[in-house]
User: Fold this.
Amino acid sequence: MTVRRSWAEPWKIKMIEPIRMTAPEHRQEAIREAGYNTFLLQSDDVYIDLLTDSGTSAMSENQWAGIMLGDEAYAGSRSYRHLCEAIEEIYGYPETVPTHQGRGAEHILSQILIRPGDVIPGNMYFTTTRFHQEYAGGKFVDVIIDEAHDPASTHPFKGNVDLAKLAAVVEEHGAERIPYICPETNVNLAGGQPMSMENLRQVWEFCRPLGILVMLDATRALENAWFIKQRETGYQDRSVREILKEICSYSDGATVSSKKDNLVNIGGFLALRDPELARRARALLVAFEGLQTYGGMSGRDMEALARGIREMVETDDHVRARVGQVEYLGRLISEAGVPIVVPVGGHGVFLDARAILAHLPQDHFPAQALAAALYVDSGVRGMERGIVSAGRNKETGDHNRPRLELVRLTIPRRVYTQSHMDVTAESVAAVYAEREQVRGLRFTYEPPDLRFFQARFEPIEA
Ligand code: PLI
Assistant:
């Protein structure tokens, strides 16, 4: 007989933050006032907040101790030095440009490398990343493998770049119009899906001789490292710390939103190998963010971040528990018969709204409507990741129509317990049982850019 041996989180709870359950009538009113957009809800009206894993982590006692030790010197802060040391040791990049969050790093990178008319390939897209590429005059081109667009494909590395698609982009535009490729680790909009080490290496080997830089979005590279350890031959006995360093070795630099893997509530960085490129980045940093030794962060933020970076890879236990909790929720929802993106990703469970609300056309925003219905059922807040997030085509003005029409239930790190996951799964199952009641939505206000943040909707009458 095999004896079951469970694992548990490698921490215990020292401080709690109360949350409250509200009545369904209250939530009905709250979502109406929020224009059926979960971004516009007040957090006091939310019971279990799965809007995002960004900036929502619980910090450790060691990080909080670091907050007290932050060096707030305008120039030459000791905390900046600690941050540089942590980034070089764990990610392997010698140059650190600190920013207020990931999009600050994306802005600076796009401005120093992209000229109008340039093309930037990427594996699917991220909203702010693509915005900054287009804002700098570039054009984003998706080169992710086809399996990434199929929620039911069980490919183990759905974040991989399709090298044939990449070669075709180079053929069409010429390498001189492609300043860099931006491979995202654990692709967010594909459902938190990893790239394999083999694919990262192939992209690097393809791009180097052509003079195309490889600038990773390493925001969730730790979670990607965990999947490589689980799924790729030859990595089972390597620590995530070693795997993460190898991932970054196949790149010229990275943008990172530290609000995810790095276990802090604010912060980010652009990390580079080339000192000349770093010099150009710092010239913009002082104009847009702050002096080169703090950029967009306070000294205490940098101190907590330096500690978070080391802590995330101190042992593999943290990331095992983190991804394990996401997989636990995914299993419960799957067992209830609800269609989700498989394999379950690193940072959240993605409900397949297109399949769940098959009676709604995509132009009636099924994922937006499903997120609102889930909130009304239980106070669980998720987020639309479908046609609303994809925005409009800059040239034609028509909606971009992604194949993936998803609701993301994103799990903050070290915040919720297994019981919160149980409550969430039960609510998803309840909404699924009543899915035919859910009506589509139409815009009452549509912002021109990054519309999902502030758009407002109303239900379409039956
Ligand atoms: O939110 P920022 O500016 O710190 O980072 C932007 C950003 C860049 N890349 C990736 C892959 C992200 O996921 C990302 C931010 N993501 C958010 C806010 C999210 O809710 O997923």
User: Anything to note?
Assistant: The first strand starts at residue 48 and ends at 49. The mean pLDDT is 97. The pocket of PLI is lined by residues 52, 54, 101-103, 126, 128-129, 184, 188, 217, 219, 257, 259, 268 (CB under 6 Å).
